[in-house]
UniProtKB/TrEMBL annotation:
<dbReference type="Pfam" id="PF03401">
    <property type="entry name" value="TctC"/>
</dbReference>
<feature type="signal peptide">
    <location>
        <begin position="1"/>
        <end position="22"/>
    </location>
</feature>
<keyword id="KW-0732">Signal</keyword>
<dbReference type="InterPro" id="IPR005064">
    <property type="entry name" value="BUG"/>
</dbReference>
<dbReference type="InterPro" id="IPR042100">
    <property type="entry name" value="Bug_dom1"/>
</dbReference>
<comment type="similarity">
    <text>Belongs to the UPF0065 (bug) family.</text>
</comment>
<protein>
    <submittedName>
        <fullName>Tripartite tricarboxylate transporter substrate binding protein</fullName>
    </submittedName>
</protein>
Amino acid sequence: MKMSWIAAAAAFAIGAHAPALADAYPGKPLAIVVPFAAGGTVDNVARQVQDVLRDKFGQTVIIENRGGAGGTIGTATVAKANPDGYTVAMVFDSYATEQHVYPKLPYAQSGLTGVSYMVRSPMVLAVPAESPYRTLQDYVEAAKQGRDVSYASVGPGSSNHLAAELFHQTAGTRGMHIPYKGGGPAITDLMGGHVDSMIASLPLVLPGIQGGKLRALAVTSTERSPALPDTPALAEHYPGLQVYSWVGMIAPAATPSDVLQTLAQKVQATLEDPVVAKRLGERGFEVVAGGPADMDRLYGEESERWGALIRERNIVTQ
């Protein structure tokens, strides 16, 4: 009888304490790992949401750029982080292809879970403003003539790389792949004429196009982009060819479900905030504001789609 009373008291204490634990989150700063160099697409989104997310979160939000190895180094730090909801990563679309490209990943995919499918955008085939390729036809003709037309990417298996491979495969041409450690360095070299082209997210190249340092030859959406109404869609020449770039948030898989949901709700509220939505829209992003299930579904679909191309084109890295 005495033991039953003790058990009941303990159960009551645990039950009474559980809401307090849940209510305590968030109780300290949030660290967002961006697994690429500063200045790229993912970093751009992180900087646009940082201030409002801080207000929604009620805590300081710190952005940590940890580039290298196509994003796998930064992603690994989150997979191995304490699953308490305070360390997350904002990832590029390459997150869905890393397992197909790298023979040995520094993290287990089972150690990560989705938080939010945040934004997406069409991509743009862009060249330096001084490039001799003034139209898509010029570019394709040069590649067909066997010239070493180079294209930049943020790493093997990234959307830049795969979109370019898919384009060249569809057009019956070849290009020379030049990988970089992030979108910022790649765009800098593109504008400087050190690389011939890049298929990059619209937000990444739009400032350069508007500033007269880059020229857009085509967009990868099925229809022309409102931001670049005079630029043809690749689908106008190659029906069915479309590619979207996207950014999402992930967390350690063992993060408690209530904490994960709270984090996801705050990210969604941040993305739907009029100030943030306007900022992102002006930079060419389409706000999705999806939840954990949306991010996990996107990962699965993109992994299946691009995995097939990676195997067919034998795209690997050492």
